[in-house]
Specification:
This protein is α+β, with helices and mostly antiparallel strands. The chain has two domains: 117 residues, HIT family, subunit A (2-Layer Sandwich); 32 residues. The protein contains three helices and five strands. Strands 1-2-3-5-4 form a five-stranded antiparallel beta sheet, covered by helices on one side. The structure holds zinc ion (ZN). The site of zinc ion has 6 residues, from helix 1.
Amino acid sequence: MSDCIFCKILAGEIPSAKVYESGRVAAFLDIGPMEKGHVLVVPKRHWPTLADVPAPLAGEDRAVWDELFDTVRRLAKAALRAGWAGANVLQCNGEAAGQTVGHLHFHVIPRPAGGAVPPAFESGAARYADDAERDAVAAKLRTALADVLRDEGV
Ligand SMILES: [Zn+2]
């Protein structure tokens, strides 16, 4: 994608503070960090969102996916090893979810002890009106997940 800022970073056309790079995945510091050390983990395939990841995964796509998750896991581990007190992993799909670059990425956000928890992560930030609404939301997700599993032949 010629107009994708992450593809340009991966191609070396835009500079970045790289933390990790292989043939399949790269990780670099976010230019607008939520905390110092905020890293973006990006596949070297232009998959806009999770919904665009090929399914079933096979071959090189599978290898990219596996390394993507391994890199997220290792960076969270590295943040703790480097002395941060915690780490968030965040992934956004679509503008409504706060995705600002249309190239799949995972945020690994190291957190210092005593830091502020972002409001959107606060437990209880949203509440169901009642158990019926809660059950309806769960049913909606179960139905959609069943559709996805059927579509993917699982
Ligand atoms: Zn891209």
